[in-house]
Amino acid sequence: MTVLRALRLTNCSVAEDGAGVAIGVLDTDGREAALMLPTDCLRALIMTLPEMMRRALRLQRRDPSLRLVYPAGGWEIEQSTEPGLLILTLRTPDNFHVSFAVTARDLQEMGEAATYSEVAVAFPANPGGGVH
């Protein structure tokens, strides 16, 4: 297996047909390299990265409660093409955003939790900036 040790990301690009992406890095020897991924691999990577970051933070700081937390910069709710579902998009001030399929009941429960709860609340029906 070839191991590439990156110092930093340099650029990212999307293929003209949307079939893949390139993630550019600068390696420890000062060489530029790129990881080319088809979009299916990118989707899997996006789903994997948050848990990898959570594990890394917890191991680095030896605190099992830590997680990466972004400041909220805005949100949007729109109708999904799937019956009974809405699309909830959460956005940071620097325009990082992620969207979730939710039901109206999910949103109602979130609102109730925010209004009446003083402790962390998670709804198991929904699997799903800083270090907190």
Please give the share of residues in helix: 25-40%
Q: What is the arithmetic mean of pLDDT?
A: 90
Alpha-carbon Rg, integer: 19 Å
Strand numbers in spatial order across the main sheet: 1-2-3
Largest sheet: 3 strands, antiparallel
Give unreliable regions as ranges. 125-129
Number of domains: 2
Computed structural class: alpha+beta
Number of strands: 8
The geometry reads as extended
Which strand-content bin applies to the residues? 25-35%
* C-alpha end-to-end distance: 35 Å
Q: Could you explain the architecture of this structure?
A:
This protein has 132 residues and is α+β, with helices and mostly antiparallel strands. It folds into two domains: 6-61, no CATH class; 70-118, no CATH class. Helices cover 27% and strands 35% of the residues. It is built from two helices and eight strands; from the N terminus they run E-E-E-H-E-E-E-E-H-E. The chain has helices at residues 39-61, 104-116; strands at residues 6-14, 20-27, 32-38, 68-69, 74-79, 86-91, 97-102, 130-131. A three-stranded antiparallel sheet has the order 1-2-3. Strand 2 (20-27) and strand 3 form a beta hairpin. The longest helix is centred in the middle third of the chain and has 23 residues, at 39-61. The radius of gyration is 19 Å and the shape is extended.
